[in-house]
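chain below, 214 aa
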Amino acid sequence: MGQSATPTDLELAALISSKICHDVIGPVGAIYNGLEILDEDDDEEAKNYALDVIRNVTEQASARLQFARFAFGAAGSAGSMIDLSTAEQISRGFVGKGKHNLHWRTVPGHMGKDKVKLLLNLVASAITALPRGGDIEVQMGGSLENPSFLIRCRGTNARPPQHLSEFIAAEHAPELDALTIQAYYTCRLAEQAGMRLEVLRDGDDILLSAKPHA
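prediction:
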């Protein structure tokens, strides 16, 4: 599905569902391949390799689904607040232990669900700002009730996150599909939370800023 106009609720739900499927299909496919090796190969070394792959990609798939549950879904819908320590834990699992390093610098406590969802989506955007890996530093100012966020992306060839600037400016925005919906949804969350998004440069670093509207 691709469209440039504001999507309906049903279209938005379909696009986000497509993105979640896109994010987990790789790890799930790797699990299936590993199980095939276990079924068909009698070599002990091959079986051990397959088990290692299954363990790693199962952890990856679980982290991505947990992240999607909070960043896109209705997790915590029984209340309007989410513990920031939960957001940190989910973000660390999503960023993983590969080429990106997460530095989390927020105060402890509970924050409104819309603002936490925005923060999680900014972390996801930060990963796309560092195609060759690097450091993602999450900073928070203000109060839990009225916060501001600053995500510093530091690494080789850091660049503005894919599509986010275009949706913020509402100019030359790409058609919506499973690859662009996350950036669009981040802007929608900022609007819902009453916050203004900016993508800035600080030397070689990229900054993702979210501040309350004046």
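The chain has six helices and seven strands. The beta strands are 81-83, 100-105, 110-112, 134-142, 147-154, 195-202, 205-212.
thats it, cya
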